[in-house]
Amino acid sequence: MKISYFYLLLSFIAMAIIGYWAFYIANSNNDHNDVVVGIGTAISVILTLGAGLGFSIEDGRVNVNIKVLCLVEFVVLMIVNFCYAGFGVSMPYYVIVVGLLLILFIGLFKKITDIREV
Questions:
Q1: Are 76 and 101 in contact (CB under 8 A)?
Q2: How much is the pTM?
Q3: Within 10 A of 42 (CB to CB), how many other CB atoms are there?
Q4: pLDDT value for 96
């Protein structure tokens, strides 16, 4: 596994910008859980974009599978995070859904990286 520090830095910058954006949307709706939304979005962004852009694996097929997984998970998590920020769903539902999606992502990421023959 090779680390690309430039793309990892871009992921951290995107994390800060998108996390603040979600915080701003939740705050403009007078949602009292706006900080949780900002932090949850930031964690979602750094896990998916950091893994998708910041790391590359020597095996080409596995590398493509990881990139596709990270992109799909990024899109799904952004939809969930911004729907919550915009519509203000109950906090326990937000934490449970985002937590389960992140656990699913980490499990699939680990499983794909352990595959030696695709």
A1: yes
A2: 0.85
A3: 21
A4: 92
